[in-house]
Amino acid sequence: MKVFVIVLLIIVALCVIIYVWASILEKKREAEILETRKNRYRSFIARFDKKYGTCSEIIKNPTEYEYDTLRVYKESEVFVINEKALRFADIISSKVELDHTSVQYAAKSVETSDVDMTSLLTRSAIGSFLGGNVGMLIGGLSAKRKKTVQMVPDSIANNYCLIIETTLNQHPTKKFQFYDDIDLARRVSKTINRTLNTYKQEKKRMS
């Protein structure tokens, strides 16, 4: 008996060690992937800063590695939105719209109006045995209802996008997905419109 307990404890200990080691390796792999993403994004930002100069305003997206949703280069008159550059002069307007609504469904067991015949016969027989005709009637009335699995709405998500109208001949309308983060989309749109208004006023004064 002692030998069996010792062997069992050794097996349990080995399983715990394997689980802990696998968890450590998984966390290390996730950290390496995250660092690779950060390095790639730093390199991306460095290229834009080298090309367009000093960034005057930044709106960050609070993701796991906080990439910049919007970078404003006033001196070069360029916006960088989700890693895409657009010149001030090419933009007409910016607005936020509801792109679509997605519904997530979940399986749910629902009782129907149909009687489960197996339950009806079983309970009627038991009721008849215990209480005669009255017992059979009561047993039948207490029979279970059939159940069916239905897909019912579980959650609803609104997906918002930033719409930018431009003067570009090819693909004049630019769409940037913000999913359910309408506050971030509005902040970006407000900043773009404010910057464009200042830019247009300055151009008007200079002309």
Short description:
This protein has 207 residues and is an alpha+beta fold. It has helices at 2-52, 117-141, 182-206, and strands spanning 57-60, 68-73, 78-81, 84-87, 91-115, 145-166, 173-179.
- Biggest sheet: strands, sense, closure? 4 strands, antiparallel
**Portion in strands:** 25-35%
| Estimated structural class | alpha+beta
- Average pLDDT number: 79
Secondary-structure element pattern, one letter each: HEEEEEHEEH
Low-confidence segments: 134-141
Q: Output the radius of gyration.
A: 32 Å
Which term fits the overall shape? elongated
Please list the strands of the largest sheet in the order they lie side by side: 1-2-3-4
End-to-end gap: 97 Å
Number of strands: 7
DSSP helix count? 3
Query: Helix fraction?
Result: 40-55%
Explain the overall architecture.
This protein is α+β, with helices and mostly antiparallel strands and 207 residues long. It contains three helices and seven strands. It has helices spanning 2-52, 117-141, 182-206, and strands spanning 57-60, 68-73, 78-81, 84-87, 91-115, 145-166, 173-179. The strands form two sheets. A four-stranded antiparallel beta sheet has the order 1-2-3-4, covered by helices on one side. Strands 5-6-7 form a three-stranded antiparallel beta sheet. The longest helix has 51 residues, at 2-52. The protein is elongated. Mean pLDDT is 79; it is low at 134-141.
